[in-house]
Fold this sequence. Notes:
With about 290 residues, this protein is of the alpha/beta class. It is about 25% helix and about 20% strand.
Amino acid sequence: MRLYAIADLHLGRKPNRDFFANLEPRPEDGLIICGDVGETAEHLITAFQIARSCFQHIFWVPGNHELYTFPEDTLKGEAKYRRLVDIAREWGVLTPEDPYMEWRGEGGPCIIAPIFTLYDYSFRPDNVARKDVLTWAKEDGVEATDEHLLFSDPHETKENWCHALVEQTERRLREAASKGLPLVIINHWPLREDLIYIPRIPRFRIWCGTKKTEDWHQRFNAKVVVTGHLHVRRTDWIDGVRFEECSLGYPYQWEGARDNGHDINSLLREILPGPPVPESGNVPTIWRRFG
């Protein structure tokens, strides 16, 4: 029993739907889906239907795209998130709202901890005040679609929602870590700012997480931290903990891997058992553009 991961499927794009539809059965294994499956409930259902037919265990965390509210939608913010959780549960998929699973397969024993943290614009330079951060990003031609489609209701702001999520997640992770087993922490957004490398749109980093999670890999005895969001596949080792960014991304971001002989199955990232911990605990980033 092995554990794999993929993020940012973006099934609203037909090439991505066709690519993911070629997922092959691994009936004894588990699959993490790290957010940004798509923008609608139908996209989520499609992903779960395909994944469920191939894997024994499915874990899902929301990304920003799942939380979007379009004019024809009736649910916003937390209510939208709760509806997505209900859909996942209908398919037997474990979410951040469910008890964490104890993994006894290869690479275990450990605890699989899906979480949801959002972001609070704290990934910004020290000389940029919160009130100026959106203007600062726009000066470089950057504005996330979130500013128009992602709502925080009933929380006053996204920061307030993020901080409430962080507080409740800290309690759950602390309780899980107290059991003495290492954790596999799953989140859509990176836990650390130093893992963000998006040179074409560097100021997009303000929508990429919160500084409140920077030391969670140490505080909560993480074995692996699995994320997406950046559309930059990479593996990092920090303090002996493996960080995996496992995005698929938009077609132009994965077609190079396809042209080099990869399909969706070889782009799944093996999380457990995974490679051994390097002796130094820290090694240079391994970039995974082509697989």
